[in-house]
Amino acid sequence: MNILIFSLILLGGAYLAGLLGSLTGLGGGVVVIPLLTLVFHVDIRYAIGAALLASIANSSGAATAYIKEGITNVRLGMFLEIATTAGAVGGALIAIFTPVNTIAILFGVVLIFSALMTIRKKNEHAAQTGSKLSYLLKLNGSYPTPAGEVSYKLKNVGGGFSIMLLAGVLSGLLGIGSGALKVLAMDGAMRIPFKVSTTTSNFMIGVTAAASAVVYLQRGYIDPGIAFPVVLGVLGGAFTGARLLTIMNPKTLRIIFCIAISFVALEMIYNGLHHQF
């Protein structure tokens, strides 16, 4: 296979990854990394490097729109990025010295967890009483709805911060946005309405990925020949997915995609256990 055919196939696969990631909320990295490792037999560290760059581009594009709409809690995102960025740098350093089979197994486990998180019941209610820390750090906010502005308060800020640290480690180690853990921290622990938690998570993913990407770049694990078509494809798919989301039933799509991604996860775990990476 010559470089042109490889790039075109990779561009098409990355486009599909970005499309599915946008429609399901899992992000393109969960498809890009298995595509590169299982189909093209690319070293998983190079696959992670490419996925991190795609996460940066994807997050940057989507975050701008959500901030303009007034949904994203920027102050909260900046506060939680302290945890995710520190964790991401640590995770990226750990990944350099971790056997690729171990990374593959862990990736599969996180994929299954992420798939389950997308179909769980979401928190849509705004808490009216917050913790002392949320008032002290001025993290409470509001977001627009068709019925008017809705105010919300944050609970268990410390617990959410701790989960974000773990999310950052996994992001640096596996090259995915760890959006499922970020939403779990905000939606589950801090009781933030789901719309705010997902948009704020998207805002944070790019910064977290950038911190990890620096380590991979220094170690030589970002190959332009792989990363360029991946970034273009994921971006194109994400923008298409954003348009299709208004006319498709996302709940049914999430269930179908979660079943498919679970099979991919099991394949990653199986190959990891049998040292096929």
From TrEMBL:
Keywords: Cell membrane, Membrane, Transmembrane, Transmembrane helix, Transport. It is a multi-pass membrane protein. It is found in: Cell membrane. The chain crosses the membrane at residues 7-40, 46-67, 79-97, 103-119, 161-181, 201-218, 225-246, 252-273. Its main location: membrane. It comes from the Bacteria. It holds the Pfam family TauE. One of its GO terms (cellular component) is plasma membrane. Belongs to the 4-toluene sulfonate uptake permease (TSUP) (TC 2.A.102) family. This is Probable membrane transporter protein.
